[in-house]
Structure formats: structure tokens, C-alpha cells
Amino acid sequence: MDEREFDDFYTASFQKITGQVYAMIGDRDEAQECVQEAFVRAWAHRRKLERAEHPEAWVRTTAYRLAVSRWRRTTRSRRPADRALGARTETAAPSEAHVALVAALKQLPEAQRQALVLHHIADLPVHAVAQETGVPEGTVKARLSRGRAALAALLSDDTGYEKGASRA
């Protein structure tokens, strides 16, 4: 993969992967930093990446693993990650429904959250989610089913985000 191809890959994938990692971990700044670091690593492994069947999956998995590692390091040290080095960026405020969805996703077990994000946000088929997470397809289907049921309960009419439902 030459520099131009990598730039095209980065331009086409960065926002999408950042959104997916954000949905998995619930922290947009952390997601952006981890995806950026994953792309730095992808550049270093671009020869392997050009042979990969799904380079976006490689970057997404790397970014997610970086986020988990950073979370563990922060938790162990009990101090917040250093944000002083990064420049402040202004982004549009998320919609109320988006905030509710991210808050609900945070309440789900990690495995269910990851399966839901990969399948519904990253648009991966069940077999690809199974391959990326390293579990059988049946397990992914169970996680999706349980996760959707839990999200439905969390985003029910009581919170005002479920469309078409009426109170009894």
C-alpha cells in the first residue's frame, strides 16, 4: 500500500471507525485518539494490511484494544489520562437520542455492546462479527438478541425514545 492508497484508506475510514469505537467505549475523545494511534500502527504494518481481507477490521480491532489497554492503565494508576497535550476540537453537540443510545450502550455488558456496535453500526454480518471477536456465530447471535432486548428496555417509552409505543 503506497502513501496515496493509505491516505485514501484513512480518509474513507477514519470517521466511520471513530464512530464505531466511540459507540463501543462511550468516550469520543478516547475513541479519536485510539483510532489515530491504530492508523499510525497500520502505516507501520501497511504491507501486511494491503494483504488483509478487511483492513478496516484490523484498524478497528487495534483501536478497540488500545482503548481497553488505556482504560486498564488508567484504572490501575487511578489517575486520568493526560489530555493536556491534545488540541481542543469543536464538534457539533450530539442529539438527545444519540446521547441516550450511548448511555444505554454503556449499561450493557461489554460483549453485548461490542456485538451490537459491530453488527448494527459497523454493518458487519454475524460471521464477520464472530471472526473479529473470536467467538462462535451462535454466541454472537445470542449476544445480539440479549443486547437488543436490553437496549429496548433501556430506551423504552419511559425514557421517551421508543417510537410508536404508548403508555398503558
UniProtKB/TrEMBL annotation:
Keywords recorded for this protein, A-Z: DNA-binding, Sigma factor, Transcription, Transcription regulation
Domain of life of the organism encoding this protein: Bacteria
Keyword Membrane: no
Domain RNA polymerase sigma factor 70 region 4 type: 99-151
Domain RNA polymerase sigma-70 region per the UniProt entry, residue ranges: 15-76
Record PANTHER family: ECF RNA POLYMERASE SIGMA FACTOR SIGM, RNA POLYMERASE ECF-TYPE SIGMA FACTO
Family: Belongs to the sigma-70 factor family. ECF subfamily.
Protein's recorded name: SigE family RNA polymerase sigma factor
